[in-house]
Write a structure and sequence with these properties.
Blueprint: E1 2-6, H1 11-21, E2 27-31, H2 39-46, E3 66-69, H3 78-86, E4 90-92, H4 93-100, E5 105-110, H5 115-128, E6 134-136, E7 148-149, E8 157-161, E9 183-186, H6 200-213, E10 219-223, H7 227-235, E11 241-245, E12 250-252, E13 257-260, E14 266-268, H8 274-289, H9 294-301, E15 312-316, E16 321-324
Parallel strand pairs: 1-2, 1-3, 3-4, 5-8, 5-9, 6-8, 9-10, 10-11
Antiparallel strand pairs: 6-7, 12-13, 13-14, 15-16
Helix pairs in contact: 1-2, 5-8, 5-9, 8-9
Length: 341
């Protein structure tokens, strides 16, 4: 199989390209007009870094089985136009991921906040017990080789972080609609991406579309602490099972967060805050559906130290601790008392 990536330097695109290139019988090529680190070094190590930057219609030929189109490319991209002229199938990366994992049970984690962390927690636990599935996650997770893994029939499961942003310049559907989830989880709902969703209603509609896109008979988990999300799920008529969860019981002694488990034991967490405890409870529910028992989950989650750039601890001293995060929407910068901090 021959697959060409238009905009191969993207954060997810380059990871998908590398994962595909590692599979037997797959030849990967790509183009981009700007490739920066760490994508450049990773593509070079994998042997698929383009010889020069730019768009080259000559790289598109009838021998290609598929073209994967990244968001960085525009609708008038010369390579895209050439692929369309030749009738080569063109996919967004979520479409291609669904196609590659069509025979697997697909678990999709969405939400306005916490989806990367929840997905990372789930993958950490599965990896801890040597049950790592195929996956797509939007950050580097300690202990995992990359942000995309594609082994095909090696595993029954595929776990995707689901994004409500448009799939590609040609396809304005939300990415997580295209995965056709068998199991879904929504962490919360808070109006975001106002450049794409100009109203609160248009943003909520993307999440209604996610529920409608799930496989009939599938299972949705959702955090009922979020009243807006709970109302949206209650109004949905999709033929799926809906299971609420809440932030679990916990305590904080001034420096350490503890998860108070139902059986009476406490788990000392390596991450901070109630949001992360809610994320962990969502991950626990998903792991249980995937065959990881409660006690095994608690044992593994205690060693989870976070995903890259998601409340990532970068410095510590007796006087202060410094975390790296990017709260690019007001709802993600709110303190517990409601102010934007």
């Amino acid at each position: 199989m021959n697959v060409h990536f238009i905009a191969i330097g993207g954060s997810v695109m380059h990871s998908l390209a590398i994962a595909l290139a590692a599979r037997d019988g797959v030849r990967v090529t790509g183009s981009d007009d700007a490739i920066v680190e760490p994508s450049r070094s990773r593509l070079r190590t994998a042997g698929i870094l383009p010889a020069e930057e730019g768009w080259f219609p000559g790289r598109i030929h009838a021998g290609l089985d598929a073209v994967v189109l990244g968001m960085h490319a525009r609708g008038n991209n010369p390579e895209l136009l050439r692929a369309q002229e030749l009738g080569i199938p063109v996919y967004s990366f979520p479409e291609y991921m669904q196609k590659a994992c069509d025979a697997q049970t697909r678990v999709v984690v969405g939400g306005s906040h916490g989806k990367t962390t929840t997905t990372s927690m789930l993958l950490h636990v599965l990896n801890y017990w040597d049950r790592l599935p195929d996956y797509l996650v939007g950050a580097q997770v300690p202990g995992l080789d990359g942000s995309v893994r594609l082994r095909g029939t090696d595993t029954k499961w595929a776990v995707f972080e689901g994004d409500e942003y448009p799939a590609s310049p040609l396809d304005r559907r939300s990415k997580f609609h295209l995965y056709k989830a068998h199991v879904g989880l929504i962490t919360g709902l808070a109006w975001d991406h106002i450049n794409v969703f100009p109203t609160r209603e248009s943003y909520a509609e993307a999440f209604r579309g996610f529920l409608a896109s799930m496989q009939p008979g599938g299972t949705l988990l959702y955090c009922e602490d979020d009243a807006e999300l709970a109302a949206l799920v209650a109004a949905d008529t999709s033929p799926i099972r809906k299971i609420p969860y809440r932030t679990p019981d916990h305590r904080h002694d001034g420096s350490q967060w503890y998860w108070k488990t139902p059986n009476g034991g406490e788990v000392a967490m390596s991450v901070i805050g109630r949001h992360n405890l809610a994320n962990a409870e969502g991950a626990r529910r998903l792991a249980e559906l995937m065959g990881i028992h409660e006690a095994a989950f608690y044992k593994a989650i205690a060693s989870f130290r976070g995903a890259q750039r998601r409340l990532e601890r970068v410095a510590n001293s007796p006087r202060r601790t410094v975390y790296f995060d990017y709260a690019h929407a007001p709802s993600k910068g709110r303190c517990d008392h409601g102010r934007v901090c």
